[in-house]
Design brief:
This is SRSO17 transposase. With 444 residues, the chain is an alpha+beta fold. The protein is built from 16 helices and twelve strands. The chain is globular, with a radius of gyration of 24 Å. The N and C termini lie far apart (69 Å).
């Protein structure tokens, strides 16, 4: 342990306890409060699937009832817990030049009853699949990043079928909202909560929306938003609009500068960048800010990416490149949330249950993000020279948390009890399924 000062089990245990304590007051009874803490610890554990059955077994419960009740019937407000988590994250990572990052991710589903599920495009599969899509807001601050908010996307096929919505527990006041509208709502909530932030970043699904861009300008947030190659860029005072890829094709070689968009797993991520800082807006020419077009070129393949930018005050190319590079932190958060704390492993169908499960996942992810950041800070302070090791990643921190903090239950009687319980429950479910099929065949 002495040879690896950044490994701090005692500090990590305090982080886990502190995150859970931040929202403990949202539970009026001690039982759901303890269950919520056990739920978060279970999400951090190394069990294969993070469902209520497995989480209950990991927590030492005799049945999954407490875990299921926490997601379905217990009295607590997932949005209030989300607010508490956001405050913890901002308290640790907050910075005046922080970036809010919007993106969506999908969970593949087999049935038709999970809230928001339908055949739709999801980047998870890279094609149209039966899926449930959530829109998320990430926060990238001084020395760390994680997810701070979430919204489940309800397609028109759901919002136009109020009976289906009622069956999934969707509140009557919830209507259809585009993904960019959900993103705008989360950004408004963050700004209203006085989250320190100067920038917003998103991919072209959001950057192509003039309404979304205007929403950010309304909050006086600078932005670097990806747009499609066919995006029309207003030039010459808005008198003409030219495709972004055509503008790039006509740029001289002298227009390109090689800069790093940040450090990745293999070192600095260098691209060639071109910046047109005399672009006018197509929505609000008197907004008092500065519009520009940023173009990124891959140094190996020549592939181009385009960004609409806006700043309240004059900005530098280095600032815009930094924000463009930070957008990828949300992808890292998705990967960690799914591979480490089970974001896509829930087996819930209802509106409240989805938000509750996802909020507790955000809590577990916050624990990992804070612990990884603390480990990096300890390594910097130690400054003992090149150790031949990379810094502790979120994945490695979770492995070490399971080694030092989360002790698996090895009691044989407990494991055998759960084996009998699972097999008995599955046998009853199979009998019910066969009986239902037989009745349907007799009726036909």
């Amino acid at each position: 342990m002495a040879a690896c000062h950044s490994v701090n089990p005692g500090g990590w245990e305090r982080v886990l306890a502190g995150v859970c304590a931040s929202f403990a007051g949202r539970f009026g009874r001690v039982e759901p409060r303890r269950t919520a803490a056990a739920f978060v610890a279970g999400l951090l554990s190394d069990i294969e699937v993070k469902t209520c059955w497995q989480l209950a077994e990991q927590a030492g419960h005799a049945r999954p009832d407490a875990m299921q009740r926490l997601l379905y019937r217990a009295v607590w407000d997932a949005d209030a817990v989300r607010d508490d988590l956001r405050q913890v994250i901002v308290g640790r990572f907050g910075a005046p030049d922080a970036v809010l990052v919007v993106d969506e991710t999908g969970d593949l589903k087999k049935g038709v009853h999970s809230v928001g599920v339908q055949r739709q495009y999801t980047g998870t599969a890279g094609r149209i699949e039966n899926a449930q899509v959530g829109v998320f807001l990430g926060y990238a601050g001084r020395d760390g990043h994680t997810l701070i908010d979430r919204r489940v996307y309800l397609p028109v096929s759901w919002t136009e079928d109020r009976g289906r919505c009622q069956g999934a527990g969707v509140p009557d006041e919830v209507g259809f909202a585009t993904k960019s509208e959900l993103a705008a709502d989360m950004i408004t909530a963050a700004v209203d909560a006085s989250v320190p932030v100067a920038w917003a970043a998103a991919d072209e699904a959001y950057g192509n929306s003039s309404v979304f861009r205007a929403h950010l300008r309304g909050h006086r947030l600078g932005y670097v938003l990806a747009v499609s190659r066919s995006h029309l860029v207003p030039l010459d005072g808005g008198k003409v609009k030219v495709r972004a890829d055509r503008i790039a094709a006509e740029l001289p070689a002298s227009a390109w500068q090689r800069r790093s968009a940040g450090t990745g797993s293999k070192g600095p991520r260098y691209y060639d960048w071109a910046w047109l800082d005399q672009v006018t807006t197509d929505a609000d020419p008197d907004d008092g800010g500065r519009h520009s077009l940023l173009i990124r070129r891959n140094t190996s393949t020549g592939e181009l990416a385009f960004y609409r930018c806006w700043t309240r005050h004059p900005a530098t190319l280095a600032q815009l490149v930094r924000v463009a590079g930070i957008r990828w932190t949300v992808e890292e958060s998705f990967q960690a949330a799914k591979s480490q704390v089970g974001l896509d492993q829930h087996q819930v169908r209802r509106w409240d249950s989805w938000h509750r499960f996802t909020t507790l996942v955000l809590a577990a992810l916050a624990v990992l993000a804070i612990c990884a950041s603390d480990a990096a800070a300890a390594r910097d302070i130690d400054n003992s020279g090149d150790t031949g090791l990379i810094k502790l990643t979120v994945n490695e921190v979770r492995r070490l948390i399971n080694t030092f903090i989360i002790r698996p239950i090895s009691d044989l009687a407990h494991r055998l009890h759960w084996s009998r319980w699972r097999r008995g429950h599955q046998a009853r479910a199979r009998r019910s399924h066969y009986t239902r099929r037989l009745n349907l065949e007799l009726q036909s």
